[in-house]
């Protein structure tokens, strides 16, 4: 290969500009995709996250019981009549933004918010589950 060919390959401003434009275009296309296009975590993935965040078996089981009843472990579950949203059916769902801006789709964020809610309102997930059993809501 001649030196002029190597120079053209190694440092062409035109090629770099083309790559930058292509990357920017791809980034713009990705950011323009609707939020619901991202794959929500499966129920088993959300449960695995919760298990890591709640190592105590009794507290995890109580949390899990509530989430099973409230959303079936569906991160994007929405109550058509009340508008409650997410794994723990926060009302309004936007309350969960205090745990993270990705509250609409991130199981970890929703679990964190739900745990904080259960601990602050009831003292623990077990106490929240006891209340849920007595009242059918928490």
Automatic annotation (TrEMBL):
InterPro entries: Lysozyme-like_dom_sf, Transglycosylase_SLT_dom_1. It comes from Streptomyces humidus. Pfam families: SLT. This is Transglycosylase SLT domain-containing protein. The keyword Signal applies. Residues 1-37 form the signal peptide. Residues 59-125 form the Transglycosylase SLT domain. Keywords: Signal. The keyword Magnesium does not apply.
């Amino acid at each position: 290969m001649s030196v002029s060919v190597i120079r053209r390959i190694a440092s062409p401003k035109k090629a770099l500009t083309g790559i930058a434009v292509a990357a920017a275009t791809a980034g713009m296309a990705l950011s323009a995709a609707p939020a619901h296009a991202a794959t929500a975590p499966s129920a088993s993935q959300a449960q695995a996250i919760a298990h890591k965040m709640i190592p105590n078996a009794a507290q995890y089981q109580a949390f899990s019981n509530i989430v099973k009843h409230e959303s079936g472990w569906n991160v994007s579950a929405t109550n058509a009549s009340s508008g409650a949203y997410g794994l723990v059916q926060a009302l309004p769902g936007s309350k969960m933004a205090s745990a993270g801006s990705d509250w609409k789709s991130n199981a970890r964020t929703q679990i964190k918010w739900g745990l904080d809610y259960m601990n602050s309102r009831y003292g623990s997930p077990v106490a929240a589950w006891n209340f849920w059993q007595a009242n059918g809501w928490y």
